[in-house]
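FAQ: What does the model actually see?

It sees only this:
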Amino acid sequence: MKEEFLKAIKENKIIVILLIVCVVLFILSKLVNHANSTMERLDAKEDYVYTKESYLFKDGKNQSTLPVVNLNSSDAKTLNQEFEEMYQDKDHILLNYSFQVTNDLLSVAYCKTSFLDDTTPIFEIKTAVFSLKSGKLLSTDEILKRFNITKEEAWKKISTQMESYYNRLVEKGSLEKAECDFSCFRRWKKWTSKEPLQLYVEENSLSHFQSWTVYMNDEMEDFQVENTKFLIVEEA
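And it is asked to produce this:
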């Protein structure tokens, strides 16, 4: 009888241990799934960023689009409100965007073209990088940390590419070096480390967006927008 009792206890201990192991494995699997999960989209039928509506701008050539960041987070809501305000100013602002999903990051680049009075339009390109796990907007420092690079190192790489671009303009005769050297050119384009980085993550590479006006004649009447993407880190 005693031996049977001890045997029963041992068998029960094994069952209890197995149950504990199963519970632990279940909890761990939940934690792993939670860590790898992405933020809930507001509209499951739409992509992470989509065009809510659009219209033909008053110039009769360009479409202005209203983007929606399709994440259920306060940061996404705030940016969507900004988009809405810009889009509704239909007489003065032209809005366009692009986006890219890379692993757990959502990068959004949007270009705002402001037409004030009869002056030359003002072009402004900005970026926003969201975590798809939390829905939060990442700071510049948080993004750079993911790529193991400092702000100073990033600007150094950008500056090298800026100078190459400047030299190409001089070689083409678009600029006179005697009239405006590279330092002058950087001030003119507001290419300084004091300006905020407009970071964009695409296919595991990190870039900085820059936009400015390029005039096509000396009278500064005809112009086009040139958006340049400076590569900071490639395939991190």
